[in-house]
Design a protein that fits this description.
The structure is a single chain. By secondary structure, this protein is of the alpha/beta class. The protein is 36% helix and 16% strand. It has a 5-stranded mixed beta sheet. The longest helix is centred in the first third of the chain and has 14 residues.
């Protein structure tokens, strides 16, 4: 049976048994927080538990490395939607130790793209369009710097409401221990 068949079979039983009832909540985050974190599988259940969060408490945006790389990309748009439309009033960026983005090698990934059948024509078209794959697919050297860089991109965004604290944390994916690396309350008297 395929993964999708297993998922659909389980889902049928999930709905039939009304297992969804314990997850019912509204669309607005009870704790008024939006979290940007990594898509690492170790954080799926660990991060909310380590932060004492339950379904409905926060908005969580998951991206590779918890890195906002473009101030006008879809991640920043999602942050702004959470702040302006969904009543969030605080932002927390949570990176993690042993992050794959720290070890991301653009040259290796570009070779893997080629190995999986993406043609040289496509690669050349992207390069000629100004997309520098070696820069776009580059990770970060240091998780602390990566988190602080994302915090700064968010804090300096011209559409960020005045006074919104933007924090940075690093979680240990083995123990759940959190380290505060950017306290959004410090020096936050508005824009």
């Amino acid at each position: 049976m395929s993964h999708i068949s297993n998922i659909l079979e389980y889902n049928r039983q999930f709905v039939e048994d009304k297992m969804y009832e314990k997850y019912l909540t509204g669309k607005f985050p009870d704790k008024k927080i939006v979290i940007i974190t990594c898509m690492d599988t170790r954080l799926v259940e660990l991060l909310p538990k380590a932060m004492n969060l339950r379904n409905g408490d926060v908005k969580i945006i998951k991206i590779a490395g918890a890195i906002v790389s473009h101030p006008f990309g879809s991640v920043m748009r999602s942050i702004l939607v959470a702040l302006y439309e969904l009543n969030a009033d605080e932002v927390i960026v949570v990176g993690h130790l042993d992050c794959g983005m720290a070890a991301l090698n653009a040259d290796h990934m570009i070779q893997e793209i080629r190995n999986r059948g993406i043609s040289e024509g496509v690669m050349t078209t992207l390069e000629n369009s100004g997309i520098k794959l070696d820069k776009w697919l580059h990770g970060f050297e240091n998780i602390h710097d990566g988190v602080k860089g994302t915090v700064n991109i968010i804090k300096k965004h011209p559409l960020l409401p005045a006074g919104v604290p933007v924090h940075g944390m690093i979680i240990d994916p083995n123990t759940g221990a959190l380290e505060l690396v950017a306290d959004g309350y410090e020096g936050n008297s508005g824009k």
